[in-house]
Write a structure and sequence with these properties.
Layout: H1 15-21, H2 24-47, H3 49-52, H4 57-66
Protein name: MXRA7 protein
Pfam families: MXRA7_helical
Length: about 70
């Protein structure tokens, strides 16, 4: 019976608190994955503009600001 120890406590810390606990490599990897996920989301939104509506460059930049990008 193994006991798992988590370095982070999901749901208990805010994003900035996680960032301060991460190594430089972990933070870079997290940012890379986040950029890839957002790119995939925006591609899907462009492909399905009939569902999501048209998004201007300004709209996209505003959304990216929410993610510190």
């Amino acid at each position: 019976d193994e006991t798992f120890s988590f370095k982070y406590s999901p749901g208990k810390l805010r994003g900035n608190q996680y960032k301060s606990m991460m190594t430089k490599e972990e933070l870079e990897e997290e940012q890379r994955v986040q950029r890839e996920q957002l790119a995939a989301i925006f591609r899907l939104m462009e492909e399905k503009s009939d569902t999501f509506g048209e998004m201007s460059e300004g709209d996209m930049k505003e959304q990216l600001r929410l993610y510190d990008i």
